[in-house]
Amino acid sequence: MSDDDEKLVESVLAGDRKAFDVLVERYQRQSVAVAARLLGNIDDALEAAQEGFVRAYQALGQLKNPARFGPWLMKIMANQALNARRSRRRNPKVSLSQSYGSDSDSERPLPLASDDPSVTDTLAAGELAEELQKAIAELPENLRTPLLLFSVEKLPQKEIADIMKCSLQTVKWSVFEARRQLRKKLKKMLD
Amino acid sequence: MKPQETEELISRYNDPDLSDSEKDLMNQALAADADLRHIQRQYQRLDRVLEQLPDGLDDVDFSGFTQRVSAATASAEAPGPKPISIWRYLAPLAAAAALIIVALPLYNFLSNNTETSTDTADFMSIVTLAPPQQLLGEPLVNQIEIIREPAGTVSPVLTEEGGVICSVGAPAKSTQANQSNVSLEKSLFGFIPDGSP
Predict the structure, then answer these.
(1) B34 interfacial to chain A (CB closer than 8 Å)
(2) CA-CA distance, A168 to A146, in Å (whole number)?
(3) Residue A44, exposed/middle/buried by CB under 10 A (0-12, 13-18, 19+)?
(4) What is the dihedral of CA A188, A130, A29, B64, to 10 degrees?
(5) pLDDT tens digits for B23-79?
(6) Which of A46, A176, B36, B195 has the largest CB neighbor count within 10 A?
(7) What is the DSSP string of B90-132?
(8) Do residue B49 and residue A132 have CB atoms under 8 angstroms apart?
(9) Residue numbers of chain A with a pLDDT score lower than 50
């Protein structure tokens, strides 16, 4: 896929805008997922992800290695989401979200567990997932963000360090500490 | 290894950056401790559930999202070709120049300090002393011969007249060092060692 990404990026730089639409389709779900993990609701995540794609389009000429478009894009998305989060804190009364689905009057939070039976094929697994989501929400932000980006969205720790503007060692420690606290809280359910 | 360090290692059992030495350490710790193996199983289960956490986006209209992104990028400034950075070409030249600037004086310094140097005019002053029967006040030095010899190779030698040929001072260096040795010898013998008064 990275070879294909490279060709698509070169096409966009040569003036083919439709090549960028292909890249958007390829990475949109992951982009929105990364933003949603950081923002906690889907509508804000959609807005942040849209803005992230526009920024990526404009900055595509600065991408040194086109084969690494995916990780580069995720970094832009995470930064966009973190900026949106900071902005939300500064202006708590202003809603950043626009609704894109049928439910237009409220922000859509992330569901606590999937309805997909292949993921929660037993009641215990479903309960564990639900309790895990709650426990993650209770983690302090400096532990929750690196945990979600690393363990859930599979971003490399080095990229997470760049996004969070901290050292690699800090990310490693944060991920461990988050996992340790989750294990401690959910010890009985993990047996 | 402290318990927390061991637990950290175990929690990273599946991480891609775990080195071979760390894996060995972890396996040794696990083999020796049933409690640690239990902890590892808990971390394994935790990681599986984390990986399977739903993204909650099944109901999102992504085709609509794509259209909105497309419309937004249509009105945005198109990305230009990669800018050609002149530094890409200058940087290697600058690095080479810096290396030469640093290396050349170092090379010269090391060359000057070697005792087997020839072209920098390392030489010794060989002074032939007058026979001991000459009275004080008379020049004690009959002859001074400057030869090119490495230091320490000339031993005192008796002349036919009873004088002694020996080396005086350290091997002279070129320019400044030579001047200082010359002035020393002048102060000892009252003349410049090249034979001139």
Answers:
(1) no
(2) 11
(3) buried
(4) 180
(5) 888 888 889 999 989 999 999 999 999 988 888 899 999 999 999 999 999 988 777
(6) A46
(7) HHHHHHHHHHHHHHHHHHHHHHHH-TT--TT--EEEEEEEPPT
(8) yes
(9) 94-106, 112-121
Q: How many CB pairs under 8 A join A and B?
A: 128
Q: What's the DSSP call for residue A60?
A: G
What SS3 class is residue B169? strand
Closest CB from B12, B53, B61 relative to A100: B61
Whether the CB of B17 is below 8 Å from some CB of chain A: the reply is yes
A154 burial type by CB count under 10 A (0-12 exposed, 13-18 middle, 19+ buried): exposed
CA-wise closest residue to A177 among A129, A138, A139 = A139
CATH pick for A2-90 out of 1.10.1740.10, 3.40.50.150, 3.40.50.2000, 1.10.10.10: 1.10.1740.10
Residues A76-125 pLDDT 10s: 999 999 899 888 877 765 444 433 333 333 456 555 444 444 444 466 77
B158 SS3 class: strand
Q: Which residue has the tokens 């690699």?
A: A168
Per-domain residue ranges of chain A: 2-90, 123-190
**Cβ(A108)–Cβ(A45) under 8 Å?**
no
What's the CATH number for A123-190?
1.10.10.10
| pLDDT at residue number A128 | 87
Instruction: Report CB contact under 8 Å: A12, B79.
Output: yes
